[in-house]
Amino acid sequence: MTQYLRRIFGEGFRAFFLGAAIWAILSGVIWEVWLGAQSVGDGIELSNLAMSPYEWHAHEMIFGYAGAAIGGFFLTAVASGRGLVITLSVCLWAAGRLALWQSSGLPAELVAGMDLSFLLFLIVRIAVQLARRPKPQHAVFLVFLAALMAGNLAVHLDWTGIIPGVAYEGMRLGLLALIGLIVVLGGRVTPGFIRNAMKRAERPEATWPPVTPRLDRGSVAFAVLLPWSLFVPVLNPMIALALGVVHGLRMAQWRGTWTLRDPLLWSLFAAQALVVAGLVMWAFAQWGIGDEIGALHVLGLGGIGGMTLAVMSRAILGHTGRAPVPPTPVAWGYGLMILSTITRWLAADLLFVWHDLLVLIAGAAWIGAFVLFLVGFLRALTGPRPIRDVRPTPPIPEHMKTAAA
Q1: pTM of the full predicted structure?
Q2: CA distance 5 to 87
Q3: Distance between CA 398 and CA 214 in Å, rounded?
Q4: pLDDT per residue over 120-154, tens digit each?
């Protein structure tokens, strides 16, 4: 047991990706049970929560699950740490989840402090790392983490009664901060992974996704503005639409049809496509066209859920020395995440009559995606790196044997 714990807490991706998947399942089951009981008229009181179950659910998806997913990424790829650093950061994240779950019995200020401590720790850790080893391409991440922190702070300012009525805006700020981060990160890694795969497949370089510096800079600029544009409501839908269009133009050149042969590639591409769709829906919903809740779930489930699932998969495979091929159960999980997104959008925008059933299906698909993720990656996350076979010395060709003799 000790060696497993040392291994898990020895690398950020192991501890946080395990935590993210487990919490995605547990919080999803709690939400499904509560929703199911409401739909049949058997109300279950979650008396341990100081906030409404709807607020708890939204908060834990944005700041709980996604917080762990990005924490694992940043503490592995940007500001890596081991041992005490990882253990402390995981404890801070878990303390926030426990504090929220038992919030009715704790002072609201204590709940806020426990929940906000993890993001604050993460921001300080990355800032110190960048101060020691400046990397301009990573500095933009602090902008999104600051917006995520500001969103979570706004939620707690509402829940503590200091600034009533801002919890919803805080959650939107957090969600849009994550979307901006995903656009920047996905815009870097997705075409790069596609190029590498096409190179391995010996495809001509002329067919690879091209470099598009103008579109890249435009999408980064709009992504940075996206969460902060909430403070100027008239600009918010215009920034969202502009980001969706620019990022969509980038994606159109990423050889999307070629990715269909590789689950890891098409899952990355599909998540980015759902981000584009969600941004456009969000913009039009602000103008009274379409349903805002549907757009938010396309961004949250398809964009954040889909992208984190794919990036976590790629990170696990790469950092444990495995080939970039996800296990079959995980590939099915990518499909379930897309199913979750579509059914939740249909429930909000089109099939209102079946709203409760579709929402429950969406939740079940979300849970199933992470169950399959754990089934496929539990051994990789908790076990040692595989020992690669030593490649044997190639035999001397027949036509060279005489010369060698």
Answers
A1: 0.91
A2: 10
A3: 55
A4: 999 999 998 888 887 777 889 999 999 999 999 99
